[in-house]
Structures are given as structure tokens and as C-alpha cells.
Amino acid sequence: MQQKLAPVILKHYDLILWFFPHVSKFSRNYKFLLGDRIENLLLDILSNLITANYSIEARRKNLIEANLKLDHLRILARLCKDLNLLSFKSYQYQAEIIDEIGRQIGGWMRSN
């Protein structure tokens, strides 16, 4: 029987689908350093969330790691806005999603 994915995993997956095309439009100066860092963080967070979904023993550790990486992502996204790699509207959109993901992770941590 396949385990149901937590809603935060689906929300984060949607963030990945939104962010990857934006990163691909970064100028060459930023795509390989900043863009790769963002893509790796997004995928690492997804991995932490999936592991937390399937492993009760490792849940808290993985949720804490995901939350920490989410904070890193927040700062890098702000840097992208300040470097004009993301418009203010795009920054605002992803910031709202990141905040929602953070709240969902926090709620998941409190429920266990």
C-alpha cells in the first residue's frame, strides 16, 4: 500500500515547478552559482519532507533540516530580488508560498 503524501510535499513540489523555469532565465553570471544553489536547496527540502513522510523515527530531524533549508531559500530568494533576477511580484509570490510551507512544516512538527 502506498503512503499518502503530506500536503506540504505537494505545496513544495508546486514551488519547485514554479522556481525552476525562473532560475533557468537567470543571467549566466548567476545561473550556475546562485541558480544551482537554489535548485539544490529545493530538491534537498523535498527529500527531507519525503523522508519525514515515510520515517516516523527520522521525522523530527528531517523536518528541522527542511525548515532550516527553507530559511536559506528565503534569503537566497531575497538576494535574487535585490539583484533584479526576480521581479518584486515574483518575489512576493514565492515568499507567500515559502511562508505557507514553513507554517505547514511547523504544524507537522507540533503534531508529532
Structure characterization notes:
The protein is an all-alpha fold and 112 residues long. It has a single domain (7-111), classed as de novo design (two linked rop proteins) (Up-down Bundle), CATH 1.20.1440.60. It is 83% helix and 0% strand. The protein is built from 4 helices and no strands. It has helices spanning 7-24, 28-54, 59-82, 88-111. α1 packs antiparallel against α2 and α2 (28-54) packs antiparallel against α3 (59-82). The longest helix has 27 residues, at 28-54. It is elongated and about 40 Å long. The two termini are 22 Å apart. The mean pLDDT is 95.
Task: Provide keyphrases for this structure.
83% helix, mainly alpha, de novo design (two linked rop proteins), single chain, 112 residues
Write the layout of secondary structure elements.
Blueprint: H1 7-24, H2 28-54, H3 59-82, H4 88-111
Helix pairs in contact: 1-2, 1-4, 2-3, 3-4
